[in-house]
Amino acid sequence: MLMSMAGRILIINPNASRACTEGIAEAVAPFAAPGLPRLDVTFLPEGPPAIVTWRDWHAAAEPLCRAIEREAAEAYVIGCVSDPGLEAARAVTDRPVLGMFRCAVAAAMTRAERFGVIGFTHRSEARQRRILQAMGVEQRLAAWIPLDLPMEVLTDPVAPQPRIAEAARALAERGAEAIVLGCAGLARHVGPAAEPGLPVIEPCQAAAAAALLAVLGARAPVLAA
Amino acid sequence: MLMSMAGRILIINPNASRACTEGIAEAVAPFAAPGLPRLDVTFLPEGPPAIVTWRDWHAAAEPLCRAIEREAAEAYVIGCVSDPGLEAARAVTDRPVLGMFRCAVAAAMTRAERFGVIGFTHRSEARQRRILQAMGVEQRLAAWIPLDLPMEVLTDPVAPQPRIAEAARALAERGAEAIVLGCAGLARHVGPAAEPGLPVIEPCQAAAAAALLAVLGARAPVLAA
Amino acid sequence: MLMSMAGRILIINPNASRACTEGIAEAVAPFAAPGLPRLDVTFLPEGPPAIVTWRDWHAAAEPLCRAIEREAAEAYVIGCVSDPGLEAARAVTDRPVLGMFRCAVAAAMTRAERFGVIGFTHRSEARQRRILQAMGVEQRLAAWIPLDLPMEVLTDPVAPQPRIAEAARALAERGAEAIVLGCAGLARHVGPAAEPGLPVIEPCQAAAAAALLAVLGARAPVLAA
Amino acid sequence: MLMSMAGRILIINPNASRACTEGIAEAVAPFAAPGLPRLDVTFLPEGPPAIVTWRDWHAAAEPLCRAIEREAAEAYVIGCVSDPGLEAARAVTDRPVLGMFRCAVAAAMTRAERFGVIGFTHRSEARQRRILQAMGVEQRLAAWIPLDLPMEVLTDPVAPQPRIAEAARALAERGAEAIVLGCAGLARHVGPAAEPGLPVIEPCQAAAAAALLAVLGARAPVLAA
Amino acid sequence: MLMSMAGRILIINPNASRACTEGIAEAVAPFAAPGLPRLDVTFLPEGPPAIVTWRDWHAAAEPLCRAIEREAAEAYVIGCVSDPGLEAARAVTDRPVLGMFRCAVAAAMTRAERFGVIGFTHRSEARQRRILQAMGVEQRLAAWIPLDLPMEVLTDPVAPQPRIAEAARALAERGAEAIVLGCAGLARHVGPAAEPGLPVIEPCQAAAAAALLAVLGARAPVLAA
Amino acid sequence: MLMSMAGRILIINPNASRACTEGIAEAVAPFAAPGLPRLDVTFLPEGPPAIVTWRDWHAAAEPLCRAIEREAAEAYVIGCVSDPGLEAARAVTDRPVLGMFRCAVAAAMTRAERFGVIGFTHRSEARQRRILQAMGVEQRLAAWIPLDLPMEVLTDPVAPQPRIAEAARALAERGAEAIVLGCAGLARHVGPAAEPGLPVIEPCQAAAAAALLAVLGARAPVLAA
User: Fold this and answer.
1) Total-model pTM
2) Which among C33, C190, C199 has CB closest to D33?
């Protein structure tokens, strides 16, 4: 069967939110195509409701590892922009495991020398800076600007857009040449983020592309045989 | 027609070699799928025979710019691991333009903190280091090891493999946690490079994935409307 | 009562090992003195048996946070050289929380420009490098050398000493000007580590000194009033 | 005799000011305890009146070295936040020699990733930046803000406090997560510096803690024997 | 003949502008002296009219290499502050080849720790930043401020001076301790740039001095024989 | 009188050695030319006999400042490769003051991205590293190799040459693309240092060139008026 030959990429949303999981699925849908690895999205019912604190961040690691042990895939994506449990997950499988924020930052670096991040709330800045340090590119962060909007605004399909556009413009003014959406839940708002004319990186999509590369690239030796 | 809706990514090999162009096409073939942007590979008959020197590197820029002005695409990839003319090309189009080496290094950074590069000849090290500096990640280069093999060995389908595996092992010993193939012509040799068990990044494929992201991501606002 | 006026520093060994806890207590004993804050050492019965993997590292965070919520102190020390749960712990108290590895590295920097680390096993290098990145001083690490000895050798009071002295000499040769013991269980082996004549930093003691400073320093305004 | 067993840490104020020397003694008094090394504070009658210029900074080195040669101690602290003569002093004794500014910055790094410095006058910024460079952490300096107050204000027990609180708030706004008092004479003003709620590091105390660690740590092998 | 013994430094303006060439000649005139290598200034009739874009920057490389192959000299200077074709030029001769911007930045570093650049137009910032990255000193750039004046103002002997003085003051306020004129055509405006009292580095002169050093230094062994 | 119009650059050897002073004078002699500023070389009878230790380094500062206050010049050069007293000297005059090591390193950076240093004895490495840190380019040091030869060998006109050539080859093997002579007394040995074919920077000459630039460049506004 073609699907089985094409394999499966499993995106694991490490929290327990179905809405968030559906948002990821929608964001990566354009990367689905016959013959390519399938992009499945799942979530952790036993994970924290959302990953807002460092405590949540740690709490996601164990259920994430168990999900990977339970579910076979050719590659795994951790569906959260603070990349929780990444190293733990990499130790429980020999398949590629990708973190969405690392993928988004790497994608930004293919487009520009300096990037800015639009964050959900100021509470996630420290975790994302830690990732930039691990990647060695904190100096290339032009600025990190949180939306810090009330939840009812954030979940509205239109209401957060002026604030997002404003943040994007502020990043451009501070020297960003590409904009990373520092939240998996902003996929529908690429438009306002793109207003200053800079490339916008949506992390679910960046991770989908990186996972396709990891899976298809690993097969290359077979093709070349 | 589906193809036209799906758009076109143009990979421009900036040299005049047909064999090299075919190698790129073969490397990116696994990324072709119905409904996704088409990956076309072309070359520059008026470009240098190969990009071996800095003079070649400069000479590729003008024909590259003209090819981009001539040929419409949703995104462009410069099909050479020294990313010649990247900034010049970006100035002649408002579509994304990607350099293969930047894409490969960024992909390595999604997989590991430190990477090594297997180069074709020692003559390309300086150009690739310059790119690492532009990306801000030169400190993350564990080592850069050239093959420096005679052309008749390099073009043989099997002969260079022991040297490639040896270089990969040497990079692993020096702390690389991922291996970047620093040459667009090594796509058939992912196997020996993978021998030490580290992720191997093939630059043509890394650029294909980055270009798919650039094109599909830029469409996202429309989908989300 | 003097003790209560002098306050209490709580060192929490985030694993479930009593032997390890006793080792920490012994290491910090020289810092106990009448009138100074008391150095209490406790452990987490519900923590992992040891912190060997990233999964252990994450698993320690939640019990650690609960212990801090449960036990009043003027300052807390996380008694493990991978500083597990540090940021999470800092969010559950407004008292100072210190990580042993950060304290040891900071202490090394008061003595030298470049330092080396003697690690327990190669498995802890990645976690300690991540801490060096968070501190911004990874470039000052001369080398990281693991002991990688069998447990029966490591727990012997004498057997590991030649290997420790050898590691210390190797660090000195690679440019270290101070040596950090990258394990809370090496306190009895400061002697062999000091053989090449460089300052040796024992992490339990470094954390004890940092905690005394945090507590006594915070009281200073009262004194000065 | 207990005192002699407990040893002696000598803090040498490298200028000729008795008032300054007394301030240091008062700042470190909380670290005195039976059984611990004694913290003696002395000064250099032949040193410059204060260390304001680079010329003063150089002039302090020779008297400092002579004082160390003259006075036995288990560890020495240079009692000035520009760490004058540190390397020279280290060459004239095999006992630990500590610089107050290095100790304060290292202490800040145990508490936060980014710190700010409140300086006495703008004239000391260059010397303190040089120290940050030597430590490899200049990038972690959020900002350096001088008080630049007239001497009669600075020496008043209350008058400088609004300016200190203002500087602390400005450092917090610029991203500092800990505040280093960049002057040995601000020990009485930890209170206003702590107003924004960040940890405050007083350099005399940071050096006292580091010296205790250096002395007690060096004894550890004996204890463990 | 003395002149021939003294040798010749060839400054090649890589564009086709005679006015620009004359400006360089005038700037370096003070370095001409009997017995020293002669400073000849030439230009490339087949070069771009000016080097404004990356495309121009690439286009200059080939004519520059040919000029070097054609004209014997003891050292070559590329007379443009984006150092076009530097590496290509170095590969076609075993004589020293110098880039004006590198020489100016290096000269600034002999005078100060942090420097600012006054640029011609914002379009040259990216090229000059790339050079700073290649030199490893981008972090020492206090700020880069373009003049962005209309051509008729720029070429006026007096009109641009207020804007230049204003830019110099702005650089000083942002922490620059030396000012690099980031354009070969500002040699007549050293005066207004020097208004804030910082050292001003004029790139044609910096390159002249560096070339004299390269030529006279290479002769030293003969003198010492 | 021409000489007076041309001005005077004063090179102050901060030690009391006449032989050393004569060596500097010989090294800079090729930069003397009619109409250019005169290069005078002097020494400090009250300075240390040589600058070998940090204590010597500090001791040179005060006599150096006094010499500058005493002797008028258009620019000053500190004739020692550890740049003693540089900042102090800059504070006592508004004329340019240059350090030989900074000038030599800056000159190396005009020729290459990575350089190596041949040092006199291992005792000067720390001081020169401190300068590289102040310049922000320590990462560009490929290696620092001391000669560590007995004085009778070092002062012999021929005996040290094999060791110098060997050090230069070792630097080239470790990635140096230019060689800095890290001692003012090696001017006669540029030849053996140049053996691997890399540019060699002699610090007396580098400083002479930098001083000419500082003096002639500062005059430019007058010329342009």
Assistant:
1) 0.95
2) C33
CA distance F58 to chain D (A): 5
Q: Are residues D24 and D70 in the same domain?
A: yes
List chain F residues with pLDDT less than 50: 1-5, 221-225
3-state secondary structure of F79: coil
Q: Which chains touch D (3 or more CB pairs under 8 A)?
A: C, F
Mean pLDDT of chain C: 93
CB atoms within 10 A of CB A2: 8
In what side-by-side order are the strands of the sheet with D178-182? D141-146, D115-119, D178-182, D200-201
Chains C+E touching (3+ CB pairs under 8 Å): no
Residues of B in contact with E59 (CB under 8 A): 61-62
With 0-12 / 13-18 / 19 or more C-beta atoms within 10 angstroms meaning exposed / middle / buried, residue D99 is: buried
- What the block records as the tokens of E187 is 């040699």
Q: Is there a single domain that holds both residue C194 and residue C124? A: yes
Point out the residue among A205, A214, A220 whose CB comes nearest to the CB of B217.
A205
Whether F90 and F56 map to the same domain: the answer is: yes
According to the model, what pLDDT value does residue D3 have? 40
Contact D167, D194 (CB under 8 A): no
For A65-77, the pLDDT digits (tens) are 999 999 999 999 9
Residues 6+ away with beta carbon under 8 Å from E30: E205, F216, F219, F220, F223
Cβ pair E102:F96 closer than 8 A: no
pLDDT tens string C181-225: 999 989 899 999 999 999 999 999 999 999 999 999 987 544 443
Give the gap in angstroms from C-alpha A66 to the nearest C-alpha of chain B: 21
pLDDT at E224: 41
Count of structural domains within chain F: 2
Inform me whether the pLDDT recorded for A219 exceeds 80.
no
The ipTM estimated for the assembled molecules is 0.95
| Range B214-221 average pLDDT | 80
Q: Which amino acid is at E77?
A: V
Residues F140 and F60 in one domain: no
One domain for residues C198 and C106 = yes
Please identify which residue in the block is written with the tokens 């010993």.
Answer: B173
Task: For residue range C82-125, list pLDDT tens digits in order.
Answer: 999 999 999 999 999 999 999 999 999 999 999 999 999 999 99
CB C35, CB C87: distance < 8 Å: no
Element (H, E) at A215: helix A203-224
Please check whether residue D224 lies inside any domain of the structure.
no
Neighbouring residues of E174: CB distance < 8 A, sequence distance ≥ 6: E116, E142, E143
In tens, the pLDDT along E112-154 reads: 999 999 999 999 999 999 999 999 999 999 999 999 998 888 8
